[in-house]
């Protein structure tokens, strides 16, 4: 098993945290992981992305040129990273903020209204967990229960009150992705 993932969006959307939580979850399940963040100097509002590699074997490089899955939270990220999805790979996108269609026809596309579902979970700040839940439903890299444990470890006691809201966001994202599964059978 080797999964290479790119999470991308603008600063403040929590894409770095989503990638960090996924990497930490993989580590908690005994897998080899790397998390490689990248962000502009302006941070909030600027571009942000991270590369996550999760493997049964040692990770050779933290840099992801060609990804098994790219998760994008805004249109500039779609435009920048769509080309990095491997043929037959996955593109998970926040359809609340991305109204354009991907250009490629050789990838599986899952459109998740992450902001809308985050509001249902308790707040728009959980959109990153909605999209992480959708990603994990499509790929199944780790158990969702491990993601919740990782979230609580990374965020610590001060954010303990947010665990239930983030668990709900993961669940809503996973369900939204499952509704689209039939579109990708036999791809």
Short description:
The protein is α/β, with parallel strands linked by helices and 187 residues long. The protein has helices spanning 15-28, 75-81, 114-121, 127-139, 144-155, 163-179, and strands at 2-10, 32-39, 47-55, 67-72, 85-94, 108-112.
Detailed description of the structure:
By secondary structure, the protein is an alpha/beta fold. The protein has a single domain, classed as 3-Layer(aba) Sandwich (Pyruvate-ferredoxin Oxidoreductase, domain 3), CATH 3.40.920. It has 6 helices and 6 strands. It has helices spanning 15-28, 75-81, 114-121, 127-139, 144-155, 163-179, and strands spanning 2-10, 32-39, 47-55, 67-72, 85-94, 108-112. It has a 6-stranded mixed beta sheet with strand order 2-3-1-4-5-6, sandwiched between helices. A hairpin with a 7-residue loop joins strand 2 and strand 3. Helix 3 (114-121) packs across helix 6. The longest helix is centred in the last third of the chain and has 17 residues, at 163-179. The chain is globular and about 45 Å long. The mean pLDDT is 92.
Question: What Rg, in angstroms, do the CA atoms define?
Answer: 15 Å
Mean pLDDT across all residues, rounded?
A: 92
Query: Structural class of the secondary structure composition?
Result: alpha/beta
Overall shape: it is globular
Total strands? 6
Distance between the termini: 20 Å
What would CATH call the architecture? 3-Layer(aba) Sandwich
Number of separate structural domains = 1
Largest beta sheet: what is the strand line-up? 2-3-1-4-5-6
Major sheet details: 6 strands, mixed
């Amino acid at each position: 098993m080797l999964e290479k993932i790119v999470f991308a969006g603008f600063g403040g959307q929590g894409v770095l945290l989503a990638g960090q939580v996924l990497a930490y979850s993989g580590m908690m399940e005994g897998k080899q992981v790397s998390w490689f963040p990248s962000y502009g100097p302006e941070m909030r509002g600027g571009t942000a992305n991270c590369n996550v590699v999760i493997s049964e074997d040692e990770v050779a490089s933290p840099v992801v040129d060609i990804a098994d899955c790219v998760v994008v939270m805004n249109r500039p990220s779609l435009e920048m990273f769509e080309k990095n999805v491997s043929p037959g790979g996955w593109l998970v996108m926040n359809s609340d903020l991305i109204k354009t269609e991907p250009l490629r026809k050789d990838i599986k596309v899952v459109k998740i209204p992450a902001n809308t579902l985050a509001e249902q979970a308790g707040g728009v700040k959980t959109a990153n967990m909605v999209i992480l839940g959708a990603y994990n439903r499509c790929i199944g890299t780790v158990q969702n229960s491990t993601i919740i444990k990782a979230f609580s470890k990374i965020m610590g006691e001060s954010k303990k009150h947010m665990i239930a809201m983030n668990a709900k966001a993961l669940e809503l994202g996973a369900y939204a992705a499952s509704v689209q599964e039939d579109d990708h059978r036999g791809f």
